[in-house]
Amino acid sequence: MPRLLRPITDSLIRSSSKNSRVFARFAHTVPELNATTTSGIPGLFSSKNIEQNWFNYQTYLVNSLNELTKDTGAENKTFYEIAKMTSQNPDLRALNYISSQAYNNYFFYYSVAPAKIDEAAPKEEFYVAPNSSETKFVDISTEFVNAPSKDYQVTSKIIDTFGSVTSFRELLINQATSIFGNGYVWLVYNPRDGQVYVVNTYNSGVPFGNSYAEAVESVEDAENETIYGKISNEARELLAEDKAKKNGIIPGLIPLLNINMWQNAWVDDYGVAGKRKYVENVWNTLRWDIIEARLNAVTKRGQTTEV
């Protein structure tokens, strides 16, 4: 493993150019999205929001990452690989922060697209687990748009774990809006038991390193079981397993989707009281084909995708 020992400095932060979006001589660049600075993401973000929180911020992260990894052997590593390989070294905390945030931000913006004018999700049996005895969090007749296809593997996993797509949607929204401060809510897949879970991470935390232990603790300490339900019990088991491991890592969790809950990501477009509306609009713009592809990459090919 290459040594990455160069810390972030104030001069590096000051030298990050808002106008330069790609350092051609380095491997890390700002990836292209469907959104543009002229259209934003209709139904979710204004063009001003995309300019600030994607183009400008991701440019800063990429430029910083290129400077930090120059001549270290990690120039050709992905955001994901660098975040994972630095998660256990306190001396590399600054690099881990930059690489994790570059990964998280990219993962989120890559997963959304302009909202579609769609009919409400049909009230079909596939939205509820057959013969399920699980307590439902919400009325399964709730209508919403942009449901995942009933033919998707991820839909089956969601129903197996949460009882219905409707219950999962409400849990995801509630857990996202419960974040105070900055962070992300994630749907992750655990190859060891074949189930999916919803977890929160904070600041630049990722669900495949040390930060996951912190996420589990936040769920374990939650008093409102009507929001967390089954997830709280599963999280306790994972936390116990985590504490039993000397390196403190929960290995093998695969991110499927995340929602950016950093306040700057939504407050300008939605206002201080608009957090739930923002998360509902994220649901409406999720690209389930991409989420399904991430799960298939693991279950069918044994691979983990960068986004």
UniProtKB/TrEMBL annotation:
Lineage top rank: taxon: Eukaryota
GO MF annotation, one: superoxide dismutase activity
GO cellular component, one term: cytoplasm
InterPro entries for the chain: Mn/Fe_SOD_C, Mn/Fe_SOD_N_sf, SOD_C_sf
One Pfam family of this chain: Sod_Fe_C
Domain Manganese/iron superoxide dismutase C-terminal, residue spans: 153-208, 246-294
Described purpose of this protein according to its UniProt entry: Component of the mitochondrial ribosome (mitoribosome), a dedicated translation machinery responsible for the synthesis of mitochondrial genome-encoded proteins, including at least some of the essential transmembrane subunits of the mitochondrial respiratory chain. The mitoribosomes are attached to the mitochondrial inner membrane and translation products are cotranslationally integrated into the membrane.
The protein's name in its UniProt record: Manganese and iron superoxide dismutase
Species this protein is from: Nadsonia fulvescens var. elongata DSM 6958
